[in-house]
Structures are given as structure tokens and as C-alpha cells.
């Protein structure tokens, strides 16, 4: 199967609305999700959730492992439960085929080799500040969710489960993470403070509310 056919197959798996809701819920969580919790989150039965979750695993969209959700061990602790998390890797398809990733890598390489990090950060910050959606929304958490960052609260810190620039950040970490921080500084209102604070498997930036004086 070609890469394009594989990507189309993944899209087909996500054609079911229940399956899409389950995937979005599991992918947005910072930890593993059990069948009961997933079923409750999307409002379906446990058996239906289990069926669709396993289909998402077969498609390579979710990964599965086993652990005891009770936290107990030893005799009487019960059998390990099947838990799910977002799988590593990306699935991209466009009709007709495009190669934006290749162009992005080429541009990033030129910028990095030319030492234009500060210019890129300034442009990213200005783009965030001028973003009409940010000005209209006023809800940074929802804006980040719509942009694919998958924000979640870790105490009083807003962490980002997903990096929308993951592929480029893997190749050019300093350049792309610096750009991302600057972009989020521009998007964030005056009450938010973005800082470099990577979370495992997620984005390099975290945000917290600024202290009021």
C-alpha cells in the first residue's frame, strides 16, 4: 500500500463520528485512558467504546498497553486493564498531493544556516499579535485547541499535548521551538506568560497566568 493509500485508509477509519470523538478525547489526554473513562467521556457504552478504540489501534492512530487502574498490585488486585494513548507518528493527506513539509524543511534549513533566528521569532510574534482570531476569541485555551495544540491543565500550568510543528521541530529544535514560543507570546493576551517548559511527547512551551499586582 502506498503512503497516500495508507493515509486515505486512516481517514476512512475516522469517518465514524463516535470513533472521531473517542480519538479526540484520548489524544488530548496527558496520560493513558481506560475503556470506562473513554466511554463515559463520549457518552457511549463500554462495549461500543472498546470496539471503536481497538479499530483506532488497528489503524495506527492509538497505542495500547495494560496496567491496573486501581493502583494496587499483588493477589486480589485484579487483571490489568487495557488502556489507550495517542500513537506516535503523523498521518497527512492532501488532494491533489502537495509537499508543504518539504518546502518547510528547506526554508527552515536556509533560515538556520543564515542565522536568522531572531528575525523569524520577531515575525512569528508579530503574526501572533496580529492574528484576527486571537483578537476576536479572547479565549486562549479554545484558540490553542482549534490550532491543534491540545491544551490541558497541569495544576495551574497550561501544557500543550501536541506540537503542530513536530516534524520540523525534530529536525530544527532550536529554530522551530524559538519560533513557536514567539508565536504563542504574540497570541497570548497580557494575562498569560508562555515559557519554555517541554512536556514528554508534547510541545516545548507551557503557559501560566501572570500574577496580578
TrEMBL record:
Pfam families: HTH_20 (PF12840)
Xref: InterPro entries: ArsR-like_HTH, WH-like_DNA-bd_sf, WH_DNA-bd_sf
CDD domains, sorted: HTH_ARSR
Protein name as it appears in the record: Helix-turn-helix domain-containing protein
Gene3D superfamilies: Winged helix-like DNA-binding domain superfamily/Winged helix DNA-binding domain (1.10.10.10)
Originating organism: Streptomyces boetiae
